[in-house]
Fold this protein.
Amino acid sequence: MTPSSGSQSDRLILAAVDIGGTKVTASLSDRNGILGKVLQPTVKTGENTALPGQVDSMIDAVCGRAAVAREDIAALGISTCSPFERRDGQLVLVSPNICGGLAPNGRRLPNDWTEIPLEAELAPRYRRVAIDNDCITAATAERLFGAGKGEDNLLYVTWSTGIGAGAYVDGHLLLGKNRNALHLGHTYMNRDDTGQPLCGCGNFSHLEAYAAGPAIARQYAAAGGATATTAEVFELCRRGEAEARRIVEQAARIFARGLANAVALLDSRLIILGGSVANDWDVVDPLVREEFYRAFPPLTQEVEIRPSALERYLGDIAALSLVMPRGWIADWQKTQPWRDAPEAVRMEGKAL
Amino acid sequence: MTPSSGSQSDRLILAAVDIGGTKVTASLSDRNGILGKVLQPTVKTGENTALPGQVDSMIDAVCGRAAVAREDIAALGISTCSPFERRDGQLVLVSPNICGGLAPNGRRLPNDWTEIPLEAELAPRYRRVAIDNDCITAATAERLFGAGKGEDNLLYVTWSTGIGAGAYVDGHLLLGKNRNALHLGHTYMNRDDTGQPLCGCGNFSHLEAYAAGPAIARQYAAAGGATATTAEVFELCRRGEAEARRIVEQAARIFARGLANAVALLDSRLIILGGSVANDWDVVDPLVREEFYRAFPPLTQEVEIRPSALERYLGDIAALSLVMPRGWIADWQKTQPWRDAPEAVRMEGKAL
């Protein structure tokens, strides 16, 4: 054994994986920063163990690129879209965005999975595996390193392809019986369903079905506008196009009601907004504020709303925060090593 | 000093006060049980210190009846309708059900209070004062002594003149920045307000405005039915009267959506329902269940719904649980002394 390989094994290496409905990222870090990162479209074909297999092969790939031995990985943090159920105490993924067997009629995925045995497949292959919902981990990342430093009553909300959240109340991170807390996108925003939009989960009238990115694009097309991406609808709104403006205003108003509902239950002091729709901050900020602060003043008037401070790095740091040792935190707060992290390398994969 | 008065002062005596929008109760307990209880309509005239004054005079009265010296009270637990704000760190009551200056147009109260200095007035007069929202304290009482013993993910909901809740998540009682967590009645249940009912807080479309007891009676009258109390509407529903049935079904459906929204945020395992409307359990139970379990199964299918096990004693035990020493809890769980508590004595009061 050479001295250099000896010093290599002494380093604490952590792996962080972020599983979304469209892409998966995997990164490796040591105490000084992020060593490497790979990215791949989320696998949705084959057996229901294909996604854990993808995670594993992506970690192999990033190990190769970063010249890290797989055995040197001390812990793996997985931040994922959800929800979860438990089988024999272990978390399985039951996300209708990935499991074709759970998607409602009319939304086709190329598999018939009803659950993905994420923990059972991956736990035996690593020294330690920690799994949580990607918005719950984002709340921790923002509280440790981002816009919510030291805040004990914090609500983080992703406004993107889906809508989800994570929260600290009285300094306690809310998890719940199956770690499914803060599924804000799946709250009803209407008393009945007549004429209301269908959510990816199969219910009508959910916040996500009104206000998530794809809902905004869909409403614009349905209103007789040309087919446009969500970003294009926002651009049209900026340029003063009346229909785009009406649709963005409506989505922002319903989204703000969702925020007010969460605050009525959690008595948060700070809301942090992340995700691709919240990136159009210039447009949504005044709209969201106007509606939010109209709600019962004793519950809303002391609440502050801020954009995420980690947006580009949020997914990586969120997954990493699940397994990061206490000793690293003060270092990372000071040096912010994610700011000069290597760009993600896009992996091809024939099974995708 | 006689031996008997000496032994009297050695006893640990606790006072418990429950402040509602219509009545206040005050009780005294020692380790063996409840010593006495008085009840009076909530004072709503005079200065904004009138309510703390009422609490104080009721404690004097129950001390007199129970032959307890006021100085022997070790702690006072106050369970109250809310919300709260803080002034110089102390809780003030800003409840639109009591403060006339906060009630929306069209709801007249005989005062112009905008806040009640509950903690500032009472804290100096007792050795220890603890104050919390009445549904938050009820969650603790049900978890210690009632239908939720030992449950770490518990949602307690009052369905009564108002709708409110209290919750444990991962064994942690949710309080929030101003102890205003779980104001479930003030969550929006509609995407817009056109034609929707006005809530006591001044907003439209809140759960409380659709489904609380008075809303049920009001909807029945508005639908052309005779003027009837909420209890009478439930009785008509039981007898098969179509309009009463339609209105109760609608209220139960919207209430169940409110429960599903709370569970989507808290991932509770157990919901406990208390309050006067939930007392019509035979009618509401199947209606609430049908709608609740239609919501996104991974979030709702493992949730159990049970009625309160403490209903008649809940207010007293809830307030008491704020200050009850650990040593008493196992005793009270075993002996359930509230079951033979003395009846409340109704006090008259010219100022009310």
